[in-house]
Design goal:
The chain is built from 28 helices and no strands. It has helices at 2-9, 20-36, 49-64, 69-113, 115-130, 134-164, 166-181, 188-195, 199-223, 227-235, 240-251, 253-273, 282-292, 295-323, 331-352, 366-379, 381-405, 408-423, 425-440, 444-474, 476-491, 498-505, 509-533, 537-545, 550-561, 563-583, 591-601, 606-628. It is 80% helix and 0% strand. α5 packs antiparallel against α14 (295-323). The chain has 640 residues and is mostly helical.
Length: 640
């Protein structure tokens, strides 16, 4: 009895606090940095072996392009067929004439969503002519249609197959993960190596970029079809093919239409970047404007890309919603007749009006915009320069100095520890392998420079995303005002975000950070808002009834319970920021993005550009794996 009493009186052994191990690891890493700073660093070498090996491979491809069977009976035919398909779309679109194409867009809008959408289609595409970029816009549209057609021809069947087979889905998932993590630039260098430059290589790069989202959404649509409906079809004697054709595809039709919408949006984003490999259309004006730091020159093309994206987005989304609703039978023939009349009116007008968009109707916005930008640069010079310098002096330069002066093995140990703590052993080993790959490729120093820019941009993105997301979740009015702005921001191709950044800050590394923040904030805001709104109302009411204030409710209930959504927001913010920072290599961001751009522009640096494209993929996978599994970690228990 006395032993039992003594046992009861013995204080229970307490576990160490959860923060103790991370703090201890951080102290060890800091001590290692302070004692070994400047040793075992990996400076950049323009003559690194991987760069030279890729240059040799390029020379071999150039020499054997017309002799090797792989090119004679494979790559060359793909290039020819895609070039012919693009030429066919371009011929048809130009044959319609500018009034005919505007009429067709009006007809499609009338079919998809009524008169309001018809007016959007007519007004939007008429604006392309008013901006003075009609021919470039038609070429961009032809490239988008070519890419999306091929992407859907491959992606939709694969998506259906993955939706019906868990084994296929598991096999495709890692491939799709890599394809979606890859920054847009990383798609270009392999295309140049195999397909040269021009519409064919741009089409391949664009369709590969657009395909993963089509596969994923289609697979999700088929997978989520009610099992009851499938069982009922099977019980009636339907074969698997009949069940797919008569049950699964009709019930998944609305979501599959969303897959088509997203493929178009991804393609529009990519065709602008593909101008670096001589893709025709609006992208070439934007790239030339960026190289000259001339906002007025590239603004009409930038606006045209946004207008085209909005029109195509609204058309396909309206078509998706219409497919999911039942319409009265009498309205069908009349609707088609009206749409046909609109299209016919446009085609007839094309025979009466000049083939070229009239010069008198073009609004020349370039010169006044250039003057306005120059005025803003001089008027706000002190403010913008102060913001840029403070950010560089207090954040960018010190952080880059730390990363580049730290021994490579210590950075590797830090990445391994962080990924292990955040996501577990398997993602940690993947992240470590990617980091070591950067070292082996000879990209360590430039990768650290890119990582510096990404970390600063992600920090600002998450702060803004949390503030705006929390505000939207707690105020319906604020959310209603903010949502249209987020919709418009997510419709714009990524490179368009460089326009205001370039106008304000010139061609500097801060320009890439500013552009990446405004590019990545919208999805972060949406995820944070949805996560907080998804907290159980019962839990919120219980906290309020217990006397919690609004601040206590947010910090102790809503944010902890929305951690999964917030960590997903961080993951998406990192991936999108990396993609934009690499694009920022065109406006002075340096790092891997600059290497890729240099590889396109200078023949002797192709190897470095190609390897840098691979490096951006490795860096993206590393950052993705660090954050991807963080939401699966158990939530910390509240202790009394």
């Amino acid at each position: 009895m006395s032993g039992a009493v003594a046992a009861l009186e013995t204080p229970a052994l307490r576990r160490p606090p959860r923060w103790l191990v991370p703090v201890a690891v951080g102290v060890v890493l800091l001590a290692g940095y302070l004692t070994m700073r400047g040793t075992a660093t990996l400076p950049h070498d323009d003559e690194a072996a991987p760069f030279l090996a890729v240059n040799e491979a390029r020379d071999w491809v150039d020499t054997n392009r017309n002799d090797n069977p792989l090119f004679l009976y494979g790559v060359n035919y793909v290039r020819i067929y895609l070039g012919e398909l693009y030429a066919a779309f371009e011929t048809v679109l130009f044959a319609l004439g500018w009034p005919g194409l505007i009429g067709v867009l009006g007809a499609l809008g009338r079919l998809a969503g009524g008169w309001r959408l018809a007016l959007l289609g007519v007004g939007g595409f008429a604006a392309l002519g008013v901006l003075g970029v009609w021919e470039a816009s038609v070429r961009t549209l032809a490239l988008v249609l070519t890419s999306v057609l091929v992407a859907l021809a491959v992606g939709l069947p694969l998506g259906v197959w993955a939706g019906r087979s868990a084994r296929v889905r598991r096999a495709l998932t890692p491939v799709l993960d890599v394809m979606q993590i890859m920054p847009t630039f990383a798609y270009l260098t392999p295309m140049v190596l195999f397909f040269g430059i021009g519409p064919s290589s741009a089409t391949v790069a664009t369709l590969i970029y657009a395909m993963p989202v089509a596969i994923r959404i289609t697979a999700l649509a088929v997978e989520r079809v009610s099992p009851t409906a499938i069982e009922a079809s099977a019980s009636l004697g339907a074969t698997r093919w009949q069940t797919l054709r008569k049950v699964q595809l009709p019930m998944a039709r609305e979501t599959i239409a969303l897959a088509i919408n997203q493929a178009i949006m991804m393609a529009l984003s990519m065709v602008v970047i593909a101008a670096l490999i001589s893709a025709p259309g609006l992208g070439s004006d934007i790239i030339r404007g960026l190289s000259r730091a001339n906002v007025g020159f590239m603004l009409p093309a930038g606006i045209a890309i946004v207008v085209m994206a909005i029109v195509l987005d609204r058309l396909t989304m309206a078509a998706a919603k219409r497919e999911g609703t039942a319409e009265a039978a009498p309205s069908g023939p009349r609707r088609y007749a009206v749409a046909g009349a609109i299209a016919l009116a446009g085609v007839v007008a094309a025979t009466l009006l000049p083939a070229r968009f009239p010069d008198a109707w073009i609004l020349r916005i370039g010169p006044p915009v250039t003057e306005a930008v120059n005025w803003a640069k001089f008027s706000w010079y002190d403010v913008t320069t102060a913001i840029r310098n403070v950010t560089s002096d207090l954040l960018l330069n010190p952080l880059q100095d730390v990363l580049t002066s730290t021994p490579w093995w210590l950075v590797a140990a830090a990445v391994l520890a962080l990924a292990w703590w955040a996501s577990g052993p398997r993602p940690a080993l993947t992240a470590l392998a990617c980091l070591l790959g950067l070292a082996l490729l000879g990209l360590w120093e430039h990768s650290m420079a890119t990582l510096t820019t990404v970390l600063v941009a992600v920090t600002v993105t998450l702060l803004l995303g949390l503030l705006l997301g929390v505000a939207a979740a707690r105020s319906r009015g604020f959310s209603a005002v903010q949502r249209p702005l987020l919709d418009a921001a997510q419709t714009m191709p990524s490179i368009v975000y460089l326009l205001p950044a370039l106008a304000l800050f010139g061609a500097t590394r801060f320009t890439a950070i500013f552009a990446s923040v405004i590019y990545a904030v919208p999805p972060v805001v949406r995820l944070v808002e949805d996560g907080i709104r998804g907290v159980s109302p019962t839990t919120v009411e219980a906290a309020l009834s217990a006397g919690s204030t609004g601040g206590q409710l947010l910090w102790k209930v809503q944010l902890p319970m929305a951690r999964g959504a917030i960590l997903l927001a961080a993951n998406q913010g990192i991936v999108m920021t990396l993609a934009m920072v690499v694009v920022g290599g065109m406006v002075g961001a340096g790092g891997l993005g600059y290497d890729v751009v240099t590889g396109f522009s200078q023949h002797s640096e192709f190897g470095m550009g190609f390897v840098a494209g691979v490096g951006t993929v490795l860096l993206g996978i590393m950052l993705d794996r660090i954050t991807q599994g963080a939401d699966r970690r158990s939530s910390p228990q509240v202790r009394g």
